[in-house]
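re: ur question from earlier - yeah i can do the single chain one, its not a big deal. heres the input i used so u can compare w yours
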Amino acid sequence: MEPAKTAVNLHRSLPDLSATIRPGDALLWGQAHAEPVTLIRALVEQRRALGRLRLFLGIGAADILQPAHADSFDFLAYCGTGANRKLAQAGVLDILPVHYSQLPRLIRSGELRADVVFVQVSPPDGLGRYSLGLAREYLVEAVRHARSIIGEIHLDVPWTYGGPYLREQDFAQLVESTSPLPSSARPLPGRVEAEIGRHVASLVEDGATLQTGIGTIPDAVLANLKNHRELGVHSGSIGEGFAQLCEAGVVTNACKSIDAGLTIGGVLIGGAALHRFAHRNPSLELRGTEYTHDQAVLASIERFVAINSAIEVDLTGQINAEVAGTTYVGGVGGIGDFLRAAQRSRGGVPIVALPSTAGTRSRVVASLSGPVTVARSDACVIVTEHGTADLRGLSIAQRIPRMIAIADPLHRDALERESRMLMNCA
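and the output i got, formated as tokens:
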């Protein structure tokens, strides 16, 4: 990235994006609470004057983009999560089904174009450095290779460590924003999630290093770890549950075989309490995807425990984390990166946790209804509210009864009957 030769003007009203964005450009920005909402709104308002654009989306939290905006935008995403779901349901969302760890390489090679990058940044420090605040992830590679960077300064965004840091001359345009950050409200864990959290917590040793996804199940798991000691964190996402464990002295990172003393993450997903925890906290570093999701890095962490979720798991251990019914609601994401690394880690535990049912439908199934996101050769520990099935090292015939035992009791007889046909075809 070549710095601009002159300082950029700071906009206190919406900038004219046509000064930077060209017809046919591909745009990319941070996900979840790192979405620069003022710039996205400006993009929507000015879309017809900008020409057709291609947008790469992460987790949608701001709920600004609508299916009707496909009149000017081609939507591409790695997931159907959050506000992306309505785009998927409307048939206007294209999916990039790649491992999360591949995103930096795709940006670097130009296969995933990022002509213009929107970044949400904190106010600068005393040295004039703008922090990327709530997210690093694939933004690190994007800002290195983009033609132009447009920044949105937000007073509520914490100044976080991990770099890269931007200076005023790195931006083509800067805008001040007072728009509320995307909502961080999430349902509290219920009885089922609490039971799953208890089972998963029993698999975590003192001194282990954790990775979790986002949602009520990870929240329930972390709530059950309050009596653990000397835990570490190396995760794609960092939420309020991790912050609480850090502040309670449960997470110390003292036993980590790499990055000792540091909580490592890629994106912060949470509200004001998390932002206060993160602001100028030298024990927290956000890093790019090429580090947070690199299997060699992760596998070098002893007792690395990867805790992920899924839509359904079949009796042989195949996992669908992408499609529910006919709608793309999840993603390939980092589940494969984290689970394989945990399998290779000395003392590691690869965990997939999910409720046994969705409504009246079993989520433990004889055959997946969607794609195979994780193959049965990558055997994991599967957890539901009914217990734990450790499939590692087991044959198909050994796996089936263990999976049936953690299914909802109302579905076990049907699964038993279907398993006989499965064994004939295995």
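The radius of gyration is 22 Å. not sure if urs matches, ping me
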